[in-house]
Amino acid sequence: MKKKDKKTKKALSDRDIMKIETARELGLWEQIQSDGWESLTNAECGRVGGIMGKKIKDLKTR
Domain span at residue 53? Predict the structure, then answer.
C-alpha cells in the first residue's frame, strides 16, 4: 500500500503566526507559499529567526 501524501491541517501556534507575519514584513511570504520554507536561503531564515527573537524578547520585557 502507498502512504497517502496528504498533509493534515493543524491549528497555527502563536509562534507560527509570528513567523508568517515576519516573512510577510520581509517580502518572503509569496516565495514561501509557492516553494515552501525550504526554498529560503540560510541568510533569509536567519533574518526571520532574528527578527522573531527580537519580537519575543520585546514582548517579555513589557
Answer: 14-60
Model confidence over 14-38: pLDDT tens digits?
999 999 999 999 999 999 999 999 9
- 3-class secondary structure for the chain? CCCCCCCCCCCCCHHHHHHHHHHHHCCCHHHHHHHCHHHCCHHHHHHHHHHHHHHHHHHHCC
1 belongs to a structural domain:
no
Number of domains in the chain: 1
**pLDDT tens column, 44-57:** 999 999 999 999 99
Task: Say which DSSP state 53 is in.
Answer: H
pLDDT of residue 10: 87
Note whether 55 and 22 are within 8 A (CB).
yes
